[in-house]
Each structure stands twice: as structure tokens, then as C-alpha cells.
Amino acid sequence: MNKYNLGQITKVLEKIFKAGFITEKEILNIGLDDLTKLQDINGNEIIIILDLKKAIKNKKLIAFLSCSDERKEGKVNE
Question: How far apart are CA 42 and CA 72, in angstroms?
Fold first, then answer.
């Protein structure tokens, strides 16, 4: 599922924050026109933004930030 790491996520978050999107609501409302406000954004970073929006919407932000795949409910991989 995830083809990126925490460093890449952090880089994208910095770009989002610098562009003025600082709340979950603002991030969820990022549209195509808003992507032009982000400096030097590339295709992979757009995918990260889309996945970030999904994680916020689905309340799975920690799983997203830890770069882990969704785990079945109640089971932890050891």
C-alpha cells in the first residue's frame, strides 16, 4: 500500500503547512487548485497528500504516519 516513508511524509507536511493548510479540515479540503500553492510538488507527493486525506477522513492518521499497512482489528503482527 505505502510506497513512501516517514521522511517523505514529513517533507510533504512541511510543504502543506507552509502553504497555509494547518488544520485537518483545511487539509481535507485541499483541491487541485490548491496544489498550485505548494512549492515544487511532484507526483509522488500528490499521492502522499491523497493518502493523508484518506487517513484523516478514516481516523487512521497514526497508521499512516507509522507507514504501516492496515492491520486486522484486534491483531498485531509480532
Answer: 32
Average pLDDT rounded to a whole number, residues 46-64 = 95
The CA-based dihedral angle spanning residues 27, 1, 10, 72, taken in that order and rounded to the nearest 10 degrees: 80
Query: Do 70 and 76 touch, CB atoms closer than 8 A?
Result: no
CA gap 4, 34 in Å, rounded: 22
All 3 cell numbers of residue 65? Answer: 504516519
**How far is it, in rounded angstroms, from Cα 59 to Cα 26?**
15
pTM for the model: 0.82
- Dihedral class, residue 76 (left if φ above 0, else alpha if ψ from -120 to 50, else beta): beta
